[in-house]
């Protein structure tokens, strides 16, 4: 079901990049897949840009500098306003931030972490230091309802 967004500015629209097709170049966080994957997502969404593009899990096969440079590129091209991480460790987020600062690139603005009654440690213990040190925010997923 498609919904026409007449007031685009009142919504925050996000998408995630990591999984794709069967080919090795159609998944992960290589520059090629970040750019082509986001273009595909924008086409499917019928949008010119998203507010946040998430790197959904870190890719050990792609150098952090390549990931940060590719995310900076898609932002500079107007395909996304910001980028964030999803399911990254605090150490990986800090590495991305450090690479961004070292090369004058755009750092991630938020981490999308699993957060519910049974999974609280990351958001409440591991990430608060990053909230205060580098200003990264949190966006949660998979909340559980407990009676």
Tell me what the structure shows:
This is NADP-dependent oxidoreductase domain-containing protein. InterPro entries: K_chnl_volt-dep_bsu_KCNAB-rel, NAD(P)_OxRdtase_dom_sf, NADP_OxRdtase_dom. The chain has 147 residues and is an alpha/beta fold. It has five helices and five strands; from the N terminus they run βαβαβαβααβ. Helix 1 (31-45) links the parallel strand 1 and strand 2 (50-56). Helix 2 (64-76) crosses helix 3 (90-102). The protein has helices at residues 31-45, 64-76, 90-102, 121-126, 128-133; strands at 14-17, 50-56, 80-86, 110-114, 137-141. The longest helix is centred in the N-terminal third of the chain and has 15 residues, at 31-45. Strands 1-2-3-4-5 form a five-stranded parallel sheet, with helices on one face. The chain is globular, with a radius of gyration of 16 Å. Helices cover 36% and strands 19% of the residues. The relative contact order is 0.13.
Structural topology:
Blueprint: E1 14-17, H1 31-45, E2 50-56, H2 64-76, E3 80-86, H3 90-102, E4 110-114, H4 121-126, H5 128-133, E5 137-141
Parallel strand pairs: 1-2, 2-3, 3-4, 4-5
Order of helices and strands: EHEHEHEHHE
Distance between the termini: 32 Å
Q: What percentage of residues falls in helices of 4 or more residues?
A: 25-40%
**Structural Rg:** 16 Å
Q: Pairing-aware structural class of the strands and helices?
A: alpha/beta
Record field, number of beta strands:
5
Shape: globular
Strand content: 15-25%
Note the main sheet: 5 strands, parallel
Low-confidence stretches: none
Count helical runs: 5
**Quaternary organisation of the protein chains:** single chain
**Strands of the largest sheet, in order across it?**
1-2-3-4-5
The overall pLDDT, averaged over residues, is 89
Pfam family, one: Aldo_ket_red
Keywords: NADP, Oxidoreductase
GO molecular function, one term: transmembrane transporter binding
Domain NADP-dependent oxidoreductase: 7-143
């Amino acid at each position: 079901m498609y919904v026409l967004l007449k007031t685009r500015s009142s919504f925050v629209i996000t998408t995630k990049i990591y999984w794709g097709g069967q080919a090795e170049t159609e998944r992960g966080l290589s520059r090629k897949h970040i750019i082509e994957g986001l273009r595909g997502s924008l086409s499917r969404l019928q949008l010119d840009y998203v507010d946040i593009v998430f790197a959904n899990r870190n890719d050990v096969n792609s150098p952090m500098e390549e990931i940060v440079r590719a995310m900076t590129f898609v932002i500079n091209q107007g395909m996304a306003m910001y980028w964030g991480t999803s399911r990254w460790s605090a150490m990986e987020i800090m590495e991305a931030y450090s690479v961004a600062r070292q090369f004058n690139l755009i750092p991630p603005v938020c981490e999308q972490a699993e957060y519910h009654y049974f999974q609280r440690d990351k958001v409440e213990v591991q990430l608060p230091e990053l909230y205060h040190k580098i200003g990264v925010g949190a966006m949660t997923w998979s909340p559980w309802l407990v009676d």
